UniProtKB/TrEMBL annotation:
Annotated keywords: Calcium, Disulfide bond, Heme, Hydrogen peroxide, Iron, Metal-binding, Oxidoreductase, Peroxidase, Secreted, Signal
Organism: Zea mays
GO molecular function, one term: metal ion binding
Catalytic residues in the record: 73
Designated name of the protein: Peroxidase
Length: 331
């Protein structure tokens, strides 16, 4: 028994090591650390981004959730190319999963300031990645380095937006992230972003609380009954007027802190979205949840590596694309 447990622990450690190596090896050759050093008329680009994000975080700390979600919806659709930022009919921004993405104004504020200092130098896609990085550190996550040198793609089309559904199974999620070049371990780490932020009752009333499996009145048996009781009676009562009530993706006290609490909730069947809970109910990803739930330092150190990997998906570099003058319009 003891030796089985030891073998299990050794296998888990090996999987972590393999995953860390894979994370370290990933990325695009053209991106560089400190790409903007010496390119902005004496302004330290990364320090400027950080100061604007810090001021914004001090006023509105949910900005960390907005930026994390934005990075995912940006990078998963044609890569981290600023496509999500474009305004206008039929752009990525208008696709249903993006209608509730927030935080565009902080990207615009950083861009405006950088255009004053050094016009046409810093891309909107790099601003997104730098701003998310800074918000993560402010919310209790680790500070991490990111490579820059992305350019902005001249493409933003709603039909390109194929994001995962909240009811995805673990296998569907792993396949989806696999399509982005990310591993199952990365997928579970990245879903850990749901340790911050919120959704609305409308996202769980049908699928989890009142119509599980399409059956009227059925509640998801995979949800902790005590939690289901609280949601049904206090947070999301079965009346249309509760649709817009906020539901924290992690619990209220930890909902703006980047910690491993999300994984501990999953162990107690307290995941909010079906996809969250599915990471634990499926044996293929449960061991990763268990590992991250047990070791908060592990989540803190590995989460940025998965974010960095996401931030380098299908980037535009060199002379491709453009450096936009404003982030919500092509030049
Ligand atoms: C299978 C993958 C995923 C699914 C199905 C999913 C789904 C969702 C849904 C349905 C919401 C609620 C949106 C709303 O009610 O407005 C949400 C919120 C959020 N998601 Fe995800 N998500 C996934 C992966 C990710 C990843 C990879 C990240 C970032 C790395 C992320 C970050 C967030 C954050 C931070 C929020 C809260 C946003 C806020 O408070 O405004 N999600 N997600």
């Amino acid at each position: 028994m003891a030796s089985a447990a030891r073998n299990g622990a050794a296998a888990a450690a090996l999987m972590v090591a393999v995953s860390v190596l894979a994370l370290a090896a990933a990325g695009s050759a053209q991106l560089q650390y400190g790409f903007y050093k010496g390119k902005c008329n004496g302004t330290d680009v990364e320090a400027l981004v950080q100061s604007i994000v810090r001021a914004r975080f001090a006023r509105e700390n949910p900005i960390v959730a907005y930026l994390l979600r934005m990075q995912f919806h940006e990078c998963a659709v044609n890569g981290c190319d600023g496509g999500l930022l474009i305004d206008g009919p039929g752009t990525e921004k208008t696709a249903p999963p993006n209608l509730s993405v927030k935080g565009y104004d902080v990207i615009a504020a950083v861009k405006a300031e950088l255009e004053r200092k050094c016009p046409g130098v810093v891309s909107c896609s790099d601003i997104q990645i730098l701003a998310t990085r800074d918000a993560v550190a402010l919310a209790g996550g680790a500070a991490y380095a990111v490579r820059t040198g992305r350019r902005d793609r001249r493409r933003s089309l709603a039909p390109d937006v194929r994001l995962p559904a909240p009811e995805f199974t673990a296998a569907q999620m792993v396949a989806y992230f696999g399509g982005l070049g990310l591993s199952a371990f990365d997928a579970v780490l990245l879903l850990g972003a749901h340790t911050v932020g919120a959704t609305r009752c409308s996202a769980i009333k049908g699928s989890r609380l009142y119509r599980y499996g399409g059956r009227a009145g059925a509640t998801d048996p995979g949800m902790d009954p005590g939690y289901a009781f609280v949601y049904k009676n206090y947070v999301c009562p079965n009346v249309p007027s509760s649709d817009n009530n906020a539901v924290f993706l992690d619990d209220q006290w930890s909902a703006l802190k980047l910690d491993n609490h999300y994984y501990r909730n999953l162990q107690q069947r307290r995941g909010v979205l079906a996809c969250d809970q599915n990471l634990y109910s499926d044996g293929s990803t449960r061991w990763i949840v268990d590992l991250l739930a047990k070791d908060s330092g592990l989540f803190t150190s590995l989460f940025p590596k998965a974010l960095v990997k996401l931030s380098e998906v299908n980037v535009v570099t060199g002379t491709q694309g453009e450096i936009r003058k404003v982030c919500n319009r092509f030049n």
